[in-house]
Each structure stands twice: as C-alpha cells, then as structure tokens.
Amino acid sequence: MKENSNRLYYWDAWRTSFAARIVETVLQNRKQAVVLDNTYFYPASGGQPADRGWLNGVPVVDVSIRPEDGAVLHWLGDGDLGGEMVSAVIDWPRRFDHMQQHTGQHILSQAFWRVAQAETIGFHLTESNLTIDLNISSLSDEVVRKAEQLANQIVWENRAVHIRFATREDALALPLRKIPPTENGWLRLIEIEGFDLTACGGTHVRQTGSVGVIKVIRAERRKNKMRIYFLCGGRAWQDYEGKNGVVAALMGMLTTGEAELVTAVSRLQEELKQTRRTLKHQQTQLLAAKAERLLASATKLGQTRLVCHISADEDANTLRQLGNQLAQQENVIALLGLAGSRSFLFFVRSEDAPGDMKALLQTAVQILGGGGGGTAVSAQGGGPPATPDTLQSVFNQITQELHKLI
Ligand SMILES: [Zn+2]
Prior knowledge:
There is one protein chain. Helices cover 36% and strands 29% of the residues. By secondary structure, the protein is α+β, with helices and mostly antiparallel strands. It folds into three domains: 8-90, Elongation Factor Tu (Ef-tu), domain 3 (Beta Barrel), CATH 2.40.30; 95-242, Threonyl-trna Synthetase, Chain A, domain 2 (Threonyl-tRNA Synthetase, Chain A, domain 2, 2-Layer Sandwich), CATH 3.30.980; 297-405, Roll (Diaminopimelate Epimerase, Chain A, domain 1). The strands form four sheets. A six-stranded antiparallel barrel has the order 1-2-5-4-3-6. A hairpin with a 3-residue loop joins strand 10 and strand 11 (196-199). Helix 1 crosses helix 2 (141-156), helix 5 crosses helix 6 (316-326) and helix 7 packs antiparallel against helix 8. The chain is elongated and about 105 Å long. Residues 102, 106, 190, 200, 202, 204 line the site of zinc ion (ZN).
C-alpha cells in the first residue's frame, strides 16, 4: 500500500487538479467508468462518500472501488473524454467539506474516549448527516458538553495532522484507537499530534484549525449505544446562520430580545390555554342560549317538540353539539342542517321522543343526493352543495313524514 498504491489522496488531500492516463475503460449497465494510472479522487469507503469532479470537462458522478482488485472506478456522466490523457479536477467544496467533517470525527471520537471511555463503533457521513455511534448506553448532557469542549480546544490549538504508514506488527505496539485489517500488509495511520492516533483511509485536513468548530446537535439512545449527531466547520456555520435567521424572525414577531424568547413563548402558550378555556366556556353558554331559543319556537307534534334549524355559517361540530344539547331535553326531535358547498345534516332526538332518525335521514339524503347513517336516536349525513331553501324544502318533507307518524 505504501509503495505501490496509485491512490494519491493517501498522501495529499489538498490537491484539486492533476493529469492522468486512462488505463482501462469499463462499461456496466450502460454506465461508463475509467481507471486512471493514478488518482486523487476519493472512492466511497470507510463511511465517507466519494468525491465528484471532472475528467476533461466530463462530470465524474461517482467513484467506487472494484472489490476484485481494488481499482478505483471513475463513473462518468455525459460527454466525450477525447483521448487517453485526462486533465482531472476535483469538486473542492465537496471534498473540503468531507475533510472537515472527517477530521472533526477523529477529534470528537477521541474526546468521547477521554471524557467517558466511550468507544466509537460506527461512523456515518452523508451530504446532510454526520454521526458516530458510541458503545455506551447513556450519556449525560454534561458529559456530552465536556467532550464537545475538549474537541473544540483541540481544534483551536491548531494541532498538526500527520499521515503515517505502519505494518500491522508496528501498529499493534502503538496506542491506536482502532486497528482495521491491513491492506497489502500496510496500515495508514492518521495522527492528531499528541491527541489521537487511528488507522484510516479517508481524507483529512493538515491542521486541526481547518475544522473550524465542532458542534454536537443531538445525542440519541439507540438500544445499548448512543448516536451522536454533530456538525463541523462549514456545516456548523450554515446551521448557525439558519438558526440565527429563525431567532431574528422570532424576535421580530414577538418584539423581544433573544434572551427573553423562551419566556415570551411560554407566556404566549399560557395565554392561549386561558383563551381556549374561556372560549370553550362561552361557546357552551352560547349553545345553551341558542338551544333555549330554538326550543321556545319549536313546533308541537302532540307532546313532542320539533326543532328545525338551518345554518349557513356554523360548522358540523357546532351543529352536533347543539343537537346533543337539545336531545338532553324531554321529548325533543331536532332536525339540523348546514347549507353551503358541502351540506351537512344532523337528526337527533331525546331517548323518550318517537321516530327513527336513521330512516328520516336516509329519506333526506336521498332527496339531496348524498349519503349518511346512524341509529334510531341520532344520524348524520350530507355531501352535495345545498342552499338554505333546498334544505328547508327537504325539512318540510321530513316534517310531513313525522306528522304521519305522530
Ligand atoms: Zn479518517
């Protein structure tokens, strides 16, 4: 690996352009890839996504390792390479982002080891997510904060990041955080001076200061391990910019300072709760008054009071509440309707009143051309648009039916 590898990013992750010769062309499922005599393109591996870039202006859309021989395959988008010599350019903002996140991961993993003896057993980096899994079943906020503080201290001390190569035997004698299987007998070691030494094939910055800042955003328990979500460098800055925007917008909406935001929101929540309670109380009183008014003008069918009410500005829920209040009185039948773009009917009666509400409702919705159902005591339905006049004529027919019954 040390002498004969053509993966030049092993030695230099900062190179953004280089010349190379195509040594093989691969066609697979109508996709084309090329193998170069040497490359600075990082192939997807070890939890780090692949680089992007261009070969003679043709986009490199993915980079992978061929398992059989370890060749680096540069998968190409549309375009013509033109010849066997290529001028290669690496998508630097993407690569540098990966370098920042990956180096930050080494630092944070070592910080968790030092603060909580928690070992990193998983690492995952995507375009939007960066996590490590720790072999510890719980972590207090204080411990997370301590690890985060230590990690940032190491970043700000701007320590050197060294790349070394060692045999497995040599590596066993070193204080390595983890030792993976060797490649051709060699291990690539990444050392953060005086702090962390680990075997890794990824791309890293040269000085820890380039990581900028490390921010843990969430620690989540997953069975018997802890998953740590964090952001480094540019990602942390973007996140800060977004959150600053949210805070500024809230400050504007609530006309208050940043430090008072939480108090202001909890005061609003309390006010909302009170307002809802008051509103509910007043709605109940309003409904009771309405029920009383309707009962006063009810039609008498023998001993039964028949209430007909058609509304255009209430909602189905209010009508149901009104109907149920009316049905609590003795010997009442209530036919309630909501006119509008979606009609609604609610027929309900007291337990001691006569009539089958389900049957009456079915008659009504048949005339309207809708649907519905219920029981002998209460039924609801509706559907098609109806004006108050239409509903009134339907209610007149239902009233005639009731006259026949009672
Ligand atoms: Zn690494």
